[in-house]
Amino acid sequence: MRRTIWALLALALLILGFLLHNRPAAAPAGGEVVVLRIDGVIGPATSDFFARELARAHKRQAGLVVLAMDTPGGLDTSMRAIIKDILAAPLPIATWVGPEGARAASAGTYILYASHIAAMAPATNLGAATPVAIGMPGGKPDGVTPRKDKKDDKSAESPAAVGDAMMEKVRNDAAAYLRSLAQLRGRSGDFAERAVREAASLSADEALAAGVIDVIAADLPELMAKLDGREVKLNGGRMQRLATAAAAITEIAPDWRMRVLAIVSNPQLALMLMMIGIYALFFEFTNPGFGVPGVAGAICLLVALYAFHLLPVNWAGVALVALGAILMLAEAFLPSFGALGVGGIVAFVVGGLFLMDTEAPGFGIPLPFLVGLAVTSALLIGAVGSFAARTRSRPVVSGREQLSGAIATVSTVTADGAWALVQGESWRVASDSPLAPGDRVRVTRLDGLTLHVEPLPPEPPHRPGGSPP
Questions:
Q1: C-alpha to C-alpha distance for 327 and 346, rounded to whole angstroms
Q2: Other residues' Cβ atoms within 10 Å of the Cβ of residue 156
Q3: Residue 247, CB half-sphere, CA atoms under 13 Å: how many?
Q4: Start and end of every NfeD-like C-terminal domain (predicted)?
């Protein structure tokens, strides 16, 4: 009985120890640290990569996700998608601007402010978060207010004044957004205001002194050591203490999916794919039956449309680009004396300038690129169109149509009819004149499978080595 009691007590202690060891951690949170590296412009591929890897880290019960970032900025839509994922994340997110020499400019500043922990490496910087957009008339540099003549109140209704008002709305919206993130994370709202309105920037030491970031760490091991034991407030108010000193670090580089999306979402490549698709379909329509250009053109057009769907494009610009291509195609067949071609080039260039609704780094379309692509398109379409027009004007050299006018030799004449050899083939022939084997005839028309012919005079005999008599 005594041994049984001791055994039950030992079993109870083992169960209690197991439960205490495996109970949900209200204080320390261990697990691996997942490091996601983002280098370059923030776009649709970046937001897709972050969302997928964040979900995988949550399934693996990671204790912390570190976003190692070096970016000049990016698209507003992609940035806001990443920030929404950070704010709703069920585990802590730390953004580290590194390694040394990296930056978190423009969109990177917003992401840094939104993270639970903001860290930077020495010799890095953040800021310059002023939104920039095109297509707004009268835009002035940030922080510069146009002077108005008090005697002329109508200037407020000018396009320049309207453009300034629109830009001011955009800046106010961006400043309020960054300020709200600063208030949520307890960071400096003063610098958030200046980063948007004055394009202010700070170094890592200045950012730490101003209360913009939490930690300066030269590398990831130092960052893990400094974050160990820090408490983080997650979504819903739940507090979680980090245990990163001895945590395993798993670095995840962008996979093939992100690389493909990054290539496809390049606006210059999307525009080129669109034009290649138009060229290929044009070649298929002018030379039907080949098949490969039509299939390749359809694929290129679909990929280009998918890229436009990912990007913040102006669909009026897409329509102008398509109109320009159609006008340049029409120039190859219609006698417009260059009017359609010039109009097509102008529409193509203007549409390319209006194509993107942003001037985020890496997403602009340079004017020389547009002009070069438009001129190349005009020359290529003109060359293909001229070749197709010359081909149509040539006589037919194959098929049933080319039999008209062909010279044949009568091979057989029977009571049922006559037969002749036409281009190596035996055809039934009919003529209003009597025919004899060996007669030379010319095909006048085709009636079903019967050729109507007319006799030709016999060829004069030739003297060997001389001229005919």
A1: 10
A2: 12
A3: 31
A4: 401-455
Residue 287 buriedness (CB in 10 A; 0-12 / 13-18 / 19+): middle
DSSP bridge partners of 422: 425
Please give the mean pLDDT across all residues of the chain: 79
Amino acid identity, position 419: W
Neighbouring CB atoms inside 10 A of 409's CB total: 13
Written in H, E and C, the secondary structure of 309-342 is: HHCCECHHHHHHHHHHHHHHHHHCCCCCCCHHHH
CATH superfamily of 22-258: 2-enoyl-CoA Hydratase; Chain A, domain 1 (3.90.226.10)
The answer to whether 116 touches 234, Cβ cutoff 8 Å, is yes
Q: What is the pLDDT of residues 99-157, one digit of tens each?
A: 999 999 989 999 999 999 999 999 999 998 887 654 333 344 444 444 444 444 444 44
Proportion of the chain above pLDDT 90, given as a percent: 29
Q: Find out whether 320 and 350 touch, Cβ atoms under 8 Å.
A: yes
**CATH number of this structure's domain 400-455, picked from the four choices 3.40.190.10, 2.40.50.140, 3.30.565.10, 3.60.110.10:** 2.40.50.140
Burial of 218 (0-12, 13-18, 19+ CB in 10 A): middle
Q: Which amino acid is at 391?
A: T
DSSP state of 228: T
Give per-residue pLDDT as tens, 89-101. Answer: 999 999 999 999 9
Q: Are 185 and 114 in contact (CB under 8 A)?
A: yes
Question: Which pTM does this prediction carry?
Answer: 0.63
Torsion sign, CA atoms 396, 402, 404, 409: positive
